[in-house]
Amino acid sequence: xxxxxxxxxxxxxxxxxxxxxxxxxxxxxxxxxxxxxxxxxxxxxxxxxxxxxxxxxxxxxxxxxxxxxxxxxxxxxxxxxxxxxxxxxxxx
Amino acid sequence: xxxxxxxxxxxxxxxxxxxxxxxxxxxxxxxxxxxxxxxxxxxxxxxxxxxxxxxxxxxxxxxxxxxxxxxxxxxxxxxxxxxxxxxxxxxxxxxxxxxxxxxxxxxxxxxxxxxxxxxxxxxxxxxxxxxxxxxxxxxxxxxxxxxxxxxxxxxxxxxxxxxxxxxxxxxxxxxxxxxxxxxxxxxxxxxxxxxxxxxxxxxxxxxxxxxxxxxxxxxxxxxxxxxxxxxxxxxxxxxxxxxxxxxxxxxxxxxxxxxxxxxxxxxxxxxxxxxxxxxxxxxxxxxxxxxxxxxxxxxxxxxxxxxxxxxxxxxxxxxxxxxxxxxxxxxxxxxxxxxxxxxxxxxxxxxxxxxxxxxxxxxxxxxxxxxxxxxxxxxxxxxxxxxxxxxxxxxxxxxxxxxxxxxxxxxxxxxxxxxxxxxxxxxxxxxxxxxxxxxxxx
Lengths: 92, 442
Hints:
CATH topology of chain A: Alpha-Beta Plaits
Distance between the termini of chain A: 42 Å
Strand content of chain A: 25-35%
Number of helices of chain A: 2
Number of domains of chain A: 1
Number of helices of chain B: 17
Radius of gyration of chain A: 13 Å
Structural class of chain A: alpha+beta
Mean pLDDT of chain B: 93
Low-confidence stretches of chain B: 1-15
Largest sheet of chain B: 5 strands, mixed
Oligomer: heterodimer
Shape of chain A: elongated
CATH superfamily of the largest domain in chain B: NADH-ubiquinone oxidoreductase 51kDa subunit
CATH architecture of the largest domain in chain B: 3-Layer(aba) Sandwich
Strand order of the largest sheet of chain B: 8-7-11-9-10
Number of strands of chain A: 5
Helix content of chain A: 10-25%
Order of helices and strands of chain B: HHHHEHHEHEHEHEEEEHEEHHEHHHHH
Mean pLDDT of chain A: 83
Low-confidence stretches of chain A: 76-92
Number of domains of chain B: 3
Strand content of chain B: 5-15%
């Protein structure tokens, strides 16, 4: 069984720690200890597509890309896809 | 830094377990004539069609020897599926300071590597081959240039071959850094996608392959799909070139079947630890692959992925550094963290700041001045915040070095926390940095 999801990528060479993404879409973005975008969930449900695209548009350096992908229902790589609530970096 | 190591390393094979890539007792360069007499460039290796070659390599079970152990056949099929024209990039920029295997191969058997590159070019129907080296590796370059002249003198028809050099740095050996350099840019990694296999040298689909990986190819082409699996562990078939260094009696480059016990490598091949000292820790796989405790040897850890995975380390590039019990292990770990900070390409903010932050806490651990909250933070960085965050694997390597160091040197860290260190010399024995002492006065 497969389903369509929103896949988000952050180009770490472009991210310069504006932090708009984490304000706008905390389901997907946290900030690390130095203020850089820290992706909490690489794939989001399809309903969040427009929000994800808006987050990408808001990024002043164009570091965020969004695409629709078809993923198998097997659990995603647990290192990158864990619930945002379980990983909250200290606020600067 | 890699330069010093390359000039210093004088590998000597005293025992060859399973000589396939290296020739026992032969340390001088093999000429084209000699290579031919050993079956080199034999017609049977060249009887395969490009597609058959790709299938052959896939069936052989060959995996990359540059560190990631990616299945070579799958990589070839992937590049071949991209539109022509395509490029082969031979990654001979051996940037791992503890490794001298690729250099050893290129100095002794340049034609074995070159035939592998030519077969790879045939397999993916590439018209160009890029030989990518450190600018300082002049002997390696001379060996390869002579090999090319030898072939041309015979009137060999081959793809266009071009040599590209980069200033030696740790990240220069990463595949996207190699491509970027070949395209005239700095030897620094790029964000993927696009991968080199999609858009590489001259924006063309590019197969980036490590030297040792390519050296296996002509032999597989000559001996068929089951040959590689005749030795080694099923998950990583064939032999591995191990660069053994640190406090062992016989450092050097050794060819062993994958899956041999690490204890065998250290004791039988390396002649044991200098002065009969106990082992405090080992770096296995290279600087990016993690610290291993001596218990791993006692429990029979082997040079293969499954055996090392539970210890949090990988086979990596096969470089092994032995740290004896009479020097400060934490000083080695702290130095290694500083190395990762110094060698960051400084392109990704998280890598720039994250590697420095980890190095700073390790320096404090060494001085016994790290607070509990700094230790907790370090663990969070190494375990969760930093892995997978960089454009290349540098930050992952730093995180692995930190995670494994916190485990392996846990007792040492406790001793240092009391102040006054552990009473052992803090002299660095890591290859390329021997004799250094970490300056943590500030």
